[in-house]
């Protein structure tokens, strides 16, 4: 009987539910598992967002690549690559694929000529790819030029044409503004002779975003005339890594490297000149700079004929493999003194032109 009573007492004591320690342990286990589950959910969500964002950038980048390849491969008039964007472009660029990171906006233009039904006049269509460094966006737009109707028989521009040109140019600028697309580099490149307007210019397609997340844009048009090849490079970010993709397009037609106004006018290259635009006054040993050139006067040049040189190779030099590359490097062991840098080119009518600047080399 005593044993039976003791057993009943133990059963009564154990029937009170969980002890405090058991409750604490249970809650701790639940909290740990909840934290692990929430952590997995958070990681999965972040991974999904990152993957989704990268996929969007990759899709848009591929769209830019496809669009540019389609435009370039069938071009029948000209291509043009320059600093700046919008209505005011800056200095022309021949090849900056192996150069430093871009410091401003870029423009790539493909121009085509289409004969009208009368067989005498033509429509000139320019497809424009604008890259905004600040926004990391690529814009597409289209402009139309009608050079045959820009002047009357007397050689004086018609008043109606001049008024129409002004209206079309303003509408194009307004479209750029409406898209929130600003040209931060226009002021830096104001030394170029490229005109902000071209006669009878019409904005047929207003600028629209073609791709986002494009952190840099480079191109090479130096082999257009000689090899009928255009290269361009797009840079994007995947996670924390920058990815550069290089594309090469073979041209079906022989074309030139010309700005739209040069591509459509018939004037001879009688007074065209070349000018070095951004040479520094002083450079130190071991420093490098990418020099650019611009045209003055009237006419055009064969960009594949552009060549850079220096008078003292032991003080500073350009790439011997690619003389069209304007990257100047000062020798790390250079002695102080002056260095004369020269750029030469051949005009489309066979004349040699050049420009030189003097740079002071210091240690």
TrEMBL record:
Keywords (A to Z) from UniProt: Membrane, Transmembrane, Transmembrane helix
InterPro entries with a match to the protein in the record: N_methyl_site (IPR012902), Pilin-like (IPR045584)
Source species, domain of life: Bacteria
Biased composition (Basic and acidic residues): 143-154
The keyword Cell division belongs to this UniProt entry's keyword annotation: no
UniProt region (Disordered), positions on chain: 143-172
TM regions (residue ranges): 20-43
Entry-linked PROSITE patterns: PROKAR_NTER_METHYL
Entry protein name: Prepilin-type N-terminal cleavage/methylation domain-containing protein
Species annotation: Blautia obeum
């Amino acid at each position: 009987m005593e044993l039976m009573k003791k057993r009943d007492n133990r059963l009564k004591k154990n029937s009170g539910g969980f002890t405090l320690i058991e409750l604490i342990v249970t809650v701790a286990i639940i909290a740990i598992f909840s934290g692990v589950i929430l952590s997995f959910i958070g990681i999965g969500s972040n991974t999904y967002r990152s993957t989704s964002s990268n996929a969007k950038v990759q899709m848009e980048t591929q769209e830019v690549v496809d669009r540019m390849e389609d435009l370039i491969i069938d071009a029948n008039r000209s291509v043009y690559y320059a600093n700046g964007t919008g209505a005011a472009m800056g200095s022309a660029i021949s090849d900056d694929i192996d150069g430093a990171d871009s410091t401003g906006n870029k423009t790539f233009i493909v121009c085509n000529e289409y004969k009208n039904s009368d067989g005498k006049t033509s429509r000139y269509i320019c497809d424009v790819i604008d890259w905004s460094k600040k926004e990391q966006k690529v814009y597409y737009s289209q402009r139309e030029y009608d050079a045959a109707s820009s002047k009357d028989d007397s050689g004086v521009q018609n008043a109606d044409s001049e008024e129409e040109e002004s209206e079309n140019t303003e509408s194009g600028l307004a479209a750029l503004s409406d898209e929130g697309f600003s040209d931060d580099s226009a002021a830096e490149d104001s030394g170029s002779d490229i005109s902000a307007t071209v006669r009878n210019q019409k904005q047929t397609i207003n600028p629209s975003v073609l791709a986002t997340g494009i952190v840099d844009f480079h191109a090479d048009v130096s082999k257009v005339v000689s090899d009928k090849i255009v290269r361009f490079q797009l840079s994007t970010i995947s996670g924390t890594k920058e990815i550069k993709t290089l594309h090469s397009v073979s041209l079906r037609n022989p074309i030139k490297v010309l700005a739209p106004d040069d591509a459509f006018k018939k004037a001879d290259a009688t007074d065209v000149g070349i000018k070095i635009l951004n040479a520094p006054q002083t450079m130190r040993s071991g420093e490098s700079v990418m020099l650019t050139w611009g045209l003055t006067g009237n006419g055009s040049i064969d960009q594949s004929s552009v060549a850079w040189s220096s008078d003292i190779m032991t003080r500073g030099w350009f790439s011997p493999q690619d003389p069209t590359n304007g990257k100047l490097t000062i020798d790390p062991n250079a002695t102080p003194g002056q260095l004369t840098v020269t750029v030469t080119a051949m005009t489309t009518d066979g004349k040699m032109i050049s420009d030189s600047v003097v740079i002071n080399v210091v240690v």
